[in-house]
Each structure stands twice: as C-alpha cells, then as structure tokens.
Design goal:
The chain is an all-alpha fold. The protein is built from 13 helices and three strands; from the N terminus they run ααααβββααααααααα.
C-alpha cells in the first residue's frame, strides 16, 4: 500500500497545520517584543503574557485533536452556554472601567462575550448546513435571530467592538453560503432606513467616538486625545522607526492604552513603516492560510465555519489597526496575539485549533479516498 508523504503522516499524528502554526508563533513572538517595550520593559507583564500564550496554545493543540463532526454536534450546546453566560453577566458580572463584561469565578476572570466569537460562526454554519442553498428569507431570518440576540446583550455591557465582530462573523457565513441579490438589496435599503434609529439607540460616548473620528482636533485634550497621540506616534516613526525601546509616546505616557488597544502605535513608532508593514504582512498571511483551509474543507459546515473563524481574526486586526491609524472609530478591540490580555488570546487560538482540525482531518479524508 502506498504511503502518504511524510508531512501528511506527521499531520495525521499531531493534527497540526505547520504553516499556520509557524505564522502564529511569529506573530506572538513579535507581540511579546513590542509588549516588552510598550510596558516600559516590565518583565512581570511580559512573563504574564507568556503564561497566557502558553495556556492559549495548549488549548489550541487540544482543539486540533477534536474531529470537525464533534464541533458540529456540540454547536447548539456551545451557543446555549454562551447565551447563558451573557445573561449571567447582566446580573452577576464584575464592573471595570464603566463596563459590566466580566465573570469572576475565583481562580478565573473572563469575558463570556469572547465565547460568541466562536459560537456565532458555529451556529450560523450549523444551521445553514441543514438548509438548501442559496439562503432564503426564512433561513436568513432565523440566522439573524441567532446573531442579533447575543450581539444586543454584548452591546449593552457595553462592548460595541465585540458586538461588531460577532455580527460580521455571522454575516460572513451568510454571504459565503450564498444569498439572492434581491435579498441583499432589500437588506441594504432596510439598513439605510434604520440608520437614524440605530444612531438614536447608541450611547452618547459611542456617538462621540464617531464624531471624534471626523474631527479629533475639536477636543485635543479630551475625546480626541487617543487618536491624536496615536497618529503622532505612528507618524514620528517614519520609514525605519526610532528603534526598539526608543519610542517616546508610550514611555512618557503620552499614548493611552499603549499595552492593549493602541499597541500597534508603539510598533509604528519604534519599527516605522517597514516594521508595521511586516506585522501587517504576517497578519495577512495568517488570514490567507485560514481562507485556504476554508476553501479546501470537505463539507459545507466546515467550509463556512472555517471562513467565519478566520474572518473573526482578520476583521479584529483590521478594525484595531484602522482605529489606531484614525480611519475607524475607537471601539476597544485588541490586536490579536499582540495586545496584552488573556480571554481574547484563548478565543483566537481556540479558533485556530478548530481551523487546524478542519485542515488535518481533510488530509485524513483524502488519504482514505
């Protein structure tokens, strides 16, 4: 019997996509280097992030061993758990920085909204897989309910950034599944008509962020401070940057949230245009690899799930970089695998574990054929 190539035999044993793993390790390593500078060379912060990365990568490796059909079977339960935890946050959630987003269970403090970054692509792909394609109005309506309920709960915390990511990941599954042009036109018209209502429903600080995006100089020491200082940091880096550990905006505390949401500005100041381009190239390479896995997946469920998961990663990175550069409103989305934090790390790498499972089990399926 003909033996499959060595890389397929290794993938069969470990269920790892080595190209994707290499890119993720490269991005995480770059992130630790930037974090060391952004935290003013605080080794405690770097070691804490390293431990979180170690835990998150361990979760990723565990997820790679679970066959895709198991995820399909577990999808309703994962979605239901996510909804239950979001409702629990409304009553028992811990408040921090004016937002009620966290659950504290003693040894663990986490954001249940992060679970929905996985659950929404899963439930959308799970439901579409049961229906004939392209999607009709009934299917679209039910999927929309699946998406809107958790998105509203997340937005009320308030966490507009995560709500946007959740909605986009669900919409990605809908459009990739196929949808009639007339439905798209009707949805676009409804969105245009409802825009004033959506504006009225937004919190005052969310409206202010949009106005600040258009005119940050109107309040340079208040609402516009974040964007102005971020642009100064990125612009001062020039082509080559000031050099690692040589940035002034973060080290002199001019740049707010320089270890979390605005860490890309630290990269821009210290590594310049070329360093930022390298970082963006790594992110794009990860995204392309993810979409390649989605394209080559064997079933409708795995294709749509993989596409939804990699869209969550890609859009998160795009929005973070866009808001730091001042071309998108500030919505508090971390830069994946770069920003300091724990729950988002676990969510993103768990998603990549599912992607690797889809990729490696596709190879097994081809070998069987």
């Amino acid at each position: 019997m003909r033996q499959p190539p060595m890389y397929k035999r290794t993938t069969r044993a470990l269920h790892i996509d080595y190209a994707l793993l290499g890119l993720l390790c490269l991005l995480a390593g770059f992130g630790l280097m930037i974090l060391y500078s952004a935290s003013n060379q605080n080794m405690h912060v770097v070691l804490s992030q390293t431990l979180r990365l170690t835990f998150a990568f361990s979760i990723m490796f565990i997820f790679t061993f679970i066959p895709p059909h198991k995820y399909k079977h577990w999808t309703p339960w994962i979605y239901g758990l996510g909804l239950f935890l979001l409702i629990t946050v409304m009553f028992l959630g811990k408040i921090g920085k004016g937002a009620q987003r966290w659950l504290d269970v003693g040894i663990l403090r986490f954001q249940p909204s992060e679970i929905m970054k996985l659950a929404i692509p899963m439930i959308s792909a799970w439901y579409v897989d049961k229906k004939s394609l392209p999607i009709d109005f009934k299917t679209l309506f039910i999927i929309s309910i699946f998406i809107i309920i958790p998105a509203v709960l997340i937005a009320k915390q308030p966490d507009l950034g995560t709500a946007i990511i959740v909605i986009i990941s669900g919409l990605c599954v809908i459009f990739l599944a196929g949808i009639h042009v007339r439905i798209v036109v009707i949805l676009a018209l409804l969105l245009g008509i409802s825009a004033p209502l959506l504006w009225h429903m937004m919190h005052d600080y969310q409206k202010q962020r949009i106005m600040t995006l258009l005119h940050p100089e109107q309040d340079p020491l208040g609402k516009g401070y974040h964007i102005i200082q971020s642009k100064i940091a990125i612009g001062s880096g020039g082509t080559m940057g000031k050099g690692w550990l040589e940035g002034s905006q973060a080290h002199l505390n001019f740049l707010p949230e320089h270890s979390t949401d605005f860490i890309f500005a630290v990269s821009g100041e210290e590594f310049g245009f070329l360093g930022s381009l390298l970082l963006i190239t790594i992110i794009l390479s990860i995204s392309l690899r993810g979409f390649s896995i989605a394209r080559n997946a064997q079933t409708t469920f795995t294709k749509l799930l993989a596409a939804g998961l990699i869209t969550t990663f890609s859009i998160s990175a795009f929005i973070n970089i866009g808001m730091v550069m001042g071309i998108l409103p500030v919505v508090g989305i971390p830069l994946p695998l770069i920003s300091y934090g724990g729950t988002a790390l676990v969510t993103f790498l768990a998603g990549f574990g599912i992607l690797m499972s889809i990729s490696s089990h596709r190879i097994l399926f081809n070998d069987i054929k």
